[in-house]
Design brief:
Structural class of chain A: mainly beta
Strand content of chain A: over 45%
Oligomer: heterodimer
Number of helices of chain B: 0
Largest sheet of chain B: 7 strands, mixed
Radius of gyration of chain B: 13 Å
Number of helices of chain A: 0
Largest sheet of chain A: 6 strands, mixed
Helix content of chain A: under 10%
Order of helices and strands of chain A: EEEEEEEEEEE
Number of strands of chain B: 11
Order of helices and strands of chain B: EEEEEEEEEEE
Largest interface: A-B, 26 and 26 residues
Chain lengths: 113, 115
């Protein structure tokens, strides 16, 4: 039972354009959502997070949007740069039995020059 | 790497042999986690620890055991390795059990191949 789903295994975007990565979840008890970025042969690194009491959080080129009614979040990267090429994982956590981070399958983002 | 080290970085082992992976942290964080990463599955929690000698199972714990005798070390043991345990294993640490803005800090991973 996949509680966090990233339905696009890969995404290719031209440098300078917007990258949009999507994530869906099923557990309404989740109250924190995070995005991690992973380069080959390295561990995942934290990128940006959002609390369920917000619908948007922005950090430089990265913005995360949360739609609680649809149980959907997305990560926008503007403008996309070659160094953004990586695997991006969506993760979620909550209270009462769902405290551990639960991850999606990941989306491999490739930024083309 | 935020004071978290995994060893070995790579290992090839034969089916049926025991294998132990080590996670060492210098951050004095109370919580430690073992995840495995597989294509199509993302990262899945194997076991976690909420203090010395306090551990619990995660989502995919069958065939694995853990031990934490010191705050800084969290060991993952595959009691009798199988080919299905070929994977990349990540250790993670956190200061709190309750995830907030920053989640966990991950190590660089151990690539394990069972032949």
């Amino acid at each position: 039972d996949q509680q966090v789903k990233q339905n696009s295994p890969s995404l290719s975007v031209q440098e300078g354009r917007i990258s949009i990565l999507n994530c869906d979840y099923t557990n309404s008890m989740f109250d924190y959502f995070l995005w991690y970025k992973k380069y080959p042969a390295e561990g995942p690194t934290f990128l940006i997070s959002i609390s369920s009491i917000k619908d948007k959080n922005e950090d430089g080129r990265f913005t995360v949007f949360l739609n609680k009614s649809a149980k959907h979040l997305s990560l926008h990267i503007v403008p996309s740069q070659p160094g953004d090429s990586a695997v991006y994982f969506c993760a979620a956590s909550g209270v009462q039995g769902a405290q551990k981070l639960v991850f999606g399958q990941g989306t491999r983002l490739t930024i083309n020059p | 790497d935020a004071g978290i080290t995994q060893s070995p970085r790579h290992k090839v082992t034969e089916t049926g042999t025991p294998v132990t992976l080590r996670c060492h942290q210098t951050e004095n964080h109370r919580y430690m986690y073992w995840y495995r990463q597989d294509p199509g599955h993302g990262l899945r929690l194997i076991h976690y620890s909420y203090g010395v000698k306090d551990t619990d199972k995660g989502e995919v714990s069958d065939g694995y055991s853990v031990s934490r005798s010191k705050t800084e070390d969290f060991l993952l043991t595959l009691e009798s390795a199988t080919s299905s345990q070929t994977s990349v294993y990540f250790c993670a640490i956190s200061e709190r059990g309750r995830v907030t803005n920053y989640g966990y800090t991950f190590g660089s991973g151990t690539r394990l191949t069972v032949v």
